[in-house]
Amino acid sequence: MKNIVLFSIVATLFQACNTESLSDMNENEIMEFHNSLITIDSHTDTPMRFIREDFDFGEYHDPYTTGSKIDIPRMDEGMLDGVFLAVFLGQRDRTAEGNEIAKQKASQIFDSIYSVVDSYSDKLEIALKPKDVYKIAKKGKHAVYIGIENGYAIGNDVSLIDTFYNRGANYITLCHSINNDICDSSTDPEGLEHNGLSEFGVEVVKRMNELGVMIDLSHASDKSFYDVLEVSKKPVIASHSCARSLCDNPRNLDDDMLKALAENGGVIQMCILSAYVETPEPNPLRDSAKNAVRELHGNYYELSDSGKVAFIEDWYKVDRDFPQKLSNVKKVVDHIDHIVKVAGIDHVGIGTDFDGGGGVEDCYDVSQLPNITRELIKRGYSEKDIRKIWGENLLGVMEKM
Which of 220, 271, 281, 290 is the most exposed place for a label (fewest CB within 10 A)? Predict the structure, then answer.
């Protein structure tokens, strides 16, 4: 957590830093510099753990044995000022019953976020506006923003956008891994359904613009992406995506999309999920073991709370038995370099996807976030540019809402 006096002194000191002085810093100075930044992670899936009775956000968890990537002690260690906690909805049937279950589940996750913040009010505080993170950091606390991952949460009822906005949602990721009533996903095995944004999706975009809810296009198909840019009057974000030219994954944005995002005034938040950073090496034993867990337990999102706990235990056992070869921070920053080259320094940030698969070998959890800053310094990024990457670009989009 920020030391308030140190935060003020170091922040003032480094305002005058240039690229050369940053490159000359020793390890202690790098850590002080990182501590002087306002750091924001735009996408984490940690609330999925909040609804489990065996998880305490205030306690330290070993990421290698528990799979947990974020908790308060490690946020302190990694000096993360602001975090977007996702109200993630796995998709069920797109029926009246399925939509009602999704609405109730979203409400439960919102409740769990507020409950955790209330329980640790000395460490956490809900943030609603861009400048809140600065005020909260000065109190020595972490700012908690909320985003919704998967517009399936609103089903086909546009009024739910208002409901979730009033509960503190700052963005909605329009879709997840399969198509929904709003738009097509980039990864639906059935392919395109709406050929991009649906008629209902147009209503959704317009209402989000009216309320000032950021539109998140991570997971959206290419056609959905461009359709949204045509309709939206406000900048958009990709809360956790990478550059497709460096890793050919449909979840990533190609160079034309990066340029279009820049023209829109939006920002892509660099994701550190290893398979989006670089194409993973084949691991058939791991793949087979993962499939066996799915077959044994069924669809995770349709399980009871106790069933989900059992699923997760077996899922992370596979990770221990058949560890995935992870990417690294250097390749993460390769993506940042590329995005800066194509879209410009004002259009990139950080969205780790921790607790949703995010993590590379030398930034495996939130405590290791300074390693990204260290690599940016090595690459010659200026103090001004690093501040933009770590939060100012995203906050700039929020200001335009």
Answer: 281
Tokens representing residue 20 in the block: 């050369």
Torsion angles phi and psi, residue 158, rounded to 5:
-65, -25
Q: Where does 69-115 show beta strands of DSSP type E?
A: 82-88
What are the b/e assignments for 93-127, b being 16+ CB within 10 Å? Answer: eeeeeebebbbebbeebbebbbebbeebeebbbbb
- Which whole-number Å values give the CA distances from 204 to 148, 222, 234, 298, 363, in the listed order? 14, 18, 13, 32, 36
pTM above 0.90, yes or no: yes
Q: Are strands 267-270 and 214-216 parallel, antiparallel or unpaired?
A: unpaired
Give the position of tokens 């709003």: 182
**How many CB atoms lie under 10 A from the CB of residue 43?**
31
Q: What is the pLDDT along the chain (401 residues), one digit of tens a residue?
A: 565 444 444 444 454 444 457 888 999 999 999 999 999 999 999 999 998 888 999 999 999 989 999 999 999 999 999 999 999 999 989 999 999 999 999 999 999 999 999 999 999 999 999 999 999 999 999 999 999 999 999 999 999 999 999 999 999 999 999 999 999 999 999 999 999 999 999 999 999 999 999 999 999 999 999 999 999 999 999 999 999 999 999 999 999 999 999 999 999 999 999 999 999 877 777 878 988 988 888 877 677 777 877 887 787 788 788 778 899 999 999 999 999 999 999 999 999 999 999 999 999 999 999 999 999 999 999 999 999 999 999 999 999 99
CB proximity list for 40: less than 8 A, separation 6 or greater: 80, 81, 82, 83, 84, 133, 143, 145, 349, 350, 390, 391, 394, 395
Query: Which DSSP symbol is given to 195?
Result: S
Q: How many CB atoms lie within 10 A of CB 18?
A: 10
**Beta carbons of 383 and 344 less than 8 angstroms apart:** no
The residues that bridge with 85 in the sheet, in sequence order, are 44, 146
CA distance 37 to 42: 15
As a whole number of angstroms, the distance between CA 78 and CA 31 comes to 10
- Over the range 337-371, which residues count as b (16 or more CB within 10 Å of their CB) and which as e? bbbbebbebbbbbbbbbbbbbbbbebbbbbbbbbb
Instruction: Return the structure tokens found at 30.
Output: 């790098």
